[in-house]
Amino acid sequence: MGAVRSMAQLEALTPLAAARPAVVRRRVAAYVAVVAACLALTPWLHSTSWVGGSRLHDVQESIAVTLALGVAAIALVRFYSRKTNSFLLLGAAFVGTALLDAYHAVATSASVQGAESALRSTSPWSWLASRLFLALLLWFHAPPLRPGRREMALDERAVYLLVGSVALACFAFFTFVPLPSAYFPDSFVDRPAELLPAVFFLLALVAHLRHGAWRTAGFESFLVTSLLLGLMSQVAFMPFATRPFSAASEAAHVAKDLSYLCVLLGLLDNMYALFRRADESAAELASANAALRAEIDERSLAEQERDRFFDMSLEMLCIAGVDGYFKQLNPAWERTLGFSLEELKSRPYLDLIHPDDLEGTQVERQRLRLGVEVVDFENRFRTRDGSYRWLAWRASALPERGLIYAVARDVQQQKQVEQMKNDFISVVSHELRTPLTSIRGALGLLAGGVAGELPERARTLLDIAANNSARLGRLINDILDIEKIESGKMGFRFSPVELMPLLEQAVESHRVYAQAYEVEPRIVAGVAGVRIWADSDRFQQVVINLMSNACKFSPRGGVVEIAAARGDGGRLRISVTDHGKGIPPEFQERIFEKFAQADASSTRQKGGTGLGLSISKAIVERHGGRIWFESEPGVATTFAFDLPEWGGATAEPDALGGARILICEDDLDVAHLLAMMLEREGFRPEVAMDAGMARRMVRERRYAAMTLDLMLPDQDGISLIRELRADAETSRLPIVVVSVRAGDGRTELNGGALGVVDWLAKPIDEGQLMAAVRRAVRGSPGGGVRILHVEDDPDLQRVVAAIVARDAEVEAAATLAEARNRLAEASFDLVILDLALPDGSGMDLLPLLGSLTPSTPVLIFSAHEVDGEVADRVASVLVKSQTSNRKLLETIRSVLASRTPTPWPAKRV
Question: Is the pTM of this model over 0.90?
Answer without folding.
Answer: no
